[in-house]
Amino acid sequence: MTFAGATAGRILTQLRHDHRTVALMVLLPSLLLVLLRYVFNDERAFSAAAPALLAVFPFAIMFIVTSITTLRERTTATLERLMTLPIGKFDLLLGYALAFGLVAVVQVLVAAAISLTWLGLEISGSVWLLLLIAVLDALLGTALGLLASAFARTEFQAVQFMPAVVMPQVLLCGLFAPREAMTPVLEWLSAVMPLSYAVDALTTVTRTAEVDGTLLRNLAIVAGCVVLALVLGAATLRRRTP
């Protein structure tokens, strides 16, 4: 855990000097939600769509930023130098996840605060539970980004993983059509994609204050996918890209 904390501290120090990346991660989801609010120009319509997008926007942004940043560390031989130290692969990826996870917390806090105040998002459940689910989803994007970076050799290839990993989940998570209304094949595919459970959990929190077994199951699935992606990322981590 000491090595993971040191890695997280190093990444956060680097991010502190990269103002554009920090602005992208922290402010872009909020700006997109503001744009969406005035596209609808109706608080009720916005409240119906915003919960899913509180999952989708942080997920997509953290995926692309994390995958590119990790790949850059590999291509510049930073990972190779780090792995000469007595540090496990999982500890190394956990450090990245902790650093980007802290950024994700700030990102979600800003987006949720703007949505709940200025944009008029109405929820029936706990605000803290809403924040927890949104943070878990941002962490999911981070973990999948770390995993995807292991299979990319260039930053351009890392960007190409976004339509392969992120877009199918966005299309099938229930954002555009109810999952149960999809064809059986697509409904089955949506059932194996973690973003679907994050969207379901956020939608539930906005509509009811009841915490039932389905909500807890959805949370457990998203959290389990975060851990699984980190474990798989550690198993496939290479010192540098050939």
Automatic annotation (TrEMBL):
Coiled-coil annotation: which residues?
none
Report membrane topology: Multi-pass membrane protein
InterPro entries named among the record's database cross-references: ABC-2_transporter_component (IPR051449), ABC2_TM (IPR013525), ABC2_TM_bact-type (IPR047817), ABC_2_transport (IPR000412)
Q: Locate the transmembrane regions by residue number.
A: 21-40, 46-71, 92-121, 127-151, 215-237
Question: Which PROSITE patterns has this protein been placed in?
Answer: ABC_TM2
Similarity field: Belongs to the ABC-2 integral membrane protein family.
Q: What is this protein called?
A: Transport permease protein
Q: What is the source species?
A: Actinophytocola gossypii
